[in-house]
Each structure stands twice: as structure tokens, then as C-alpha cells.
Fold this sequence. Notes:
Elements: H1 3-18, E1 24-28, H2 33-47, E2 53-60, H3 67-81, E3 85-89, H4 100-115, E4 120-123, H5 128-140, H6 145-148, E5 154-157, E6 160-163, H7 171-180, H8 197-212, H9 216-245, E7 252-253, H10 254-258, H11 262-275, H12 283-294, E8 303-306, E9 309-314, E10 317-321, E11 333-336, E12 346-348, E13 352-360, E14 364-365, H13 366-369, E15 373-377, E16 384-385, E17 394-395, H14 396-402, H15 407-410, E18 415-418, E19 421-425, E20 429-430, E21 441-449
Parallel strand pairs: 1-2, 1-4, 2-3, 4-6
Antiparallel strand pairs: 5-6, 7-10, 8-9, 9-10, 11-15, 12-13, 13-21, 14-21, 15-18, 16-17, 18-19, 19-20
Amino acid sequence: MFAVLISAQQQIQAWRAAHPHIRRLIVGYSGGLDSHVLLHWLAMQQSAGLGCVLQALHVDHGLQAASAAWGEHCAAVCQALQVPLRICRVDAQPAPGESPEAAARRARYAAFAAELGPDAALLTAHHRDDQAETLLLQLLRGAGPHGLAAMPAVSRLGRGWLRRPFLDVDRAVLQAYAQAHALHWIEDASNANTDFDRNYLRHRVMPLLRQRWPAVQRTLARSARHCAETAAWLDVEAERDLRAARSDAEGLSIRVVRELAEPRQRNLLRYWLRCLRLPVPDARQLARILHDTLHAAADRNPCVCWPGGEVRRYREVLYALSPQAPHDARQILLWRAQADDVWPPLTVPNLGGLRMQKTVGAGLRAGLLTGGVLQVRFRRGGERFHPVGRAHGQELKKLLQEAGIPPWQRERLPLLYREDVLLVVPGLGVASAAAAASGEPGWELLWQPLAPRGSG
């Protein structure tokens, strides 16, 4: 019965041979049967020369009163197996509209990703039964090929890797292994709660399917592999379309996207958003993106939002980014020089950082800043600016439009003032009256905005 574990071992060895830089294998250890079998199995291989440092990571979600006792159980098991254990406590409270299951998974994998360096791989004990349940859940949610591909055997996670060596192993094999080795594991009472979708499938639906089709787990897992192949082919096509649609502004060219058939448009947008590590919108939201952004009038700047992401259009280019943090345009930040006219870096909350760099014949005239206090303000309307190289001043709004700065960035640009005189606008330059002359000492303002996740 355990011959299938030998196959899993061979797969790990072949993968490690292809990735010799992997030095640490970290088991995601909940204390339940599946992860206990994985940990014990790997510990036995380690004694026979696994070739890697074996570690365990237990995530305490803090959602049940027994969670502290579970951590103690995991610590005792790891001590007996001589495997170092780290316990990580996370906040798994669901966000508005988020299910408890999804919130716990999000918090757990964030903790996993934070532990992984380039030399590490996380191993989880997902098995063939889990794969079959995942496919059914995705099918009932109306997922496409990427969702129906269920869980990949190997994927990137954080700076490292995620491997699922038991995906071709039935849970019955793991149960038999646990009994044969007299293992003791945690029984989480919530696993029997059929109010959760996965538990309902596991305890109510799958037993009925097995009565009619005994090999249902194997069959559904095979379907998941077929869907994974299809998803990989769709990604190849999407990558080709993405290269063609990339604009100079690092968004997507509306013109190029319009030329694609609708199925290719949807495939491209999904792939693009996944590449940007943004949540992929559902079919209804995706239809809104295509309708509202591709067919809007040229002078319109529509924005389509969904939980965790948004797509904006500006000047025939699509931009995708994570929702922007709250911003108060009325705030004023004071920036004071230290001794000897040293300007310490200034953090602009939720937006980025400013710093000054000494220069000659460029930037702000140094004498203008001696002993002064600068202010950082934001656009509130009606500002005028006369940058170097312009014959006269103009409304700041028009200058920003001419520079092609997207509207959602304009309100968040830090404007550098001394008293009520606008000195510098990032992206536009220095005020003509405040600029250093040739050979004159100056200060160059350097603006480093926070890189928004999915900024194109």
C-alpha cells in the first residue's frame, strides 16, 4: 500500500536534483493526521539521508480555544522527531464579505510565504481526496480552466517554493500509514462541521459519489490535470497577447486589446491581473471591465473596482492596481533642515518618501533653503506653476495633463512649498524663479512613490 509514497519520494528527489539550491524543507504542520504523516515520513527519510534541513511550521490561527494546546502537541511531536518547529500566530479574522475559511487560508499562506527564502520549499500534505474536493468546489463556483486545475503539485510561494508531494496519494493510504506507525494526531472538531462547504462535500457528497463511482477521487484528480494542461496552454496564448498589448506606459493598449476576440480579451485580462498578483475578478466584473473601459468615449477615464483590485483607463491605456490607501489632500507636512543644511528623508504617509540631494547648477537654489522650513502640500485646485523651460506660468492642472500624469496620481503628488511659493512639482521640475543657476549650489528633490501592487 505504501509503494505510492516511494513514488512521492522519487518525485521530491528528482525535483531537488533540478533545484540544488534548495537547502530547507519546511513542513506546514497543523498537527492533524495528514500533516503528521508528511512530517513523520520526511523525518524517517532524513535519518536515511534526506539531503536537506527539515523544519516544521505550525500556524496558530487563534480561532479556537484549543489552539494553544495544539501548539504544545506539535512541539512535543517535533521534539520526539528531532525536527525544529516554529509556531507562528496570525490574525485570521475575516474581512467584510470574506468567509472564515478564506480568511484562515489567506493568513496561513501569508505566514508561510514570509518564512520562505530562495533556499526553502514549503511542503503541505494535500492529497488526492483534497484535490477532488477542490475541483468540485471550483466547479460549483463556475470556475474556468485555471480554477478547475485545482492545486498544482509545484508552484512559487513568496521567495521560495510550494510542493504538494501527496497529490497522487489517497487519504486512505495516509490513514493506514498513521495506524501502522502508531501516530497520534489532533482531531479538529470543526472538520466535522458541514456548514463549511468543503466539509459538506467531504462528509455528505463524496461518500455518495464513491458508492456509485468508487474511483471518483482518481477520476476527478485526472480531470484537474487535464484542466491544468489547458490552463497552461491558455497562459502561453495570453503571454503572447500581453507582449503585443504592452504600452509604453506599462499598461495595456486599448487599441490592441480591442482587436482581439472577446474570449482572448478575457483570457488576456485574467493573465495580466494574475501576473500583477491582483485578485482575478469574477465573470460579471470582468464583463464590466471590458464594456466600461474598452468602449468608453476617448475623453472618459472609467474605473472598475472589485475586492482587492481596480482597472482604470487613461489616454487609451488600461492600468491595473490595488485599491489606493486613503489620502487627505488637506494635510500639510513640515520639513525642517538639520544642522549644516542637512535635509533628513521625509516619509509621506501611504504615498512614499522625499529626500534632498546636493547638486550644482540644477535643482533648487541652495541659498533659498538656508535656515528655512519647507511644506509639503497636495493639490486642492487653482494652483499655478512656472517650471524651468516655460515662458510663463500656467495652471498646474493643465501642466499635469500635458505631462501625461494619470488623474489618480495627480492628487497624490507632493508639492514642495516655502511659505506660499510653490517650488517643486515631481514630474514637472523646479520653479523658474527658484532654480539654481549654472555653477551655483543646488538641491535636487527626489520623490520615491510607493510601488502600488499591480501598477501595470
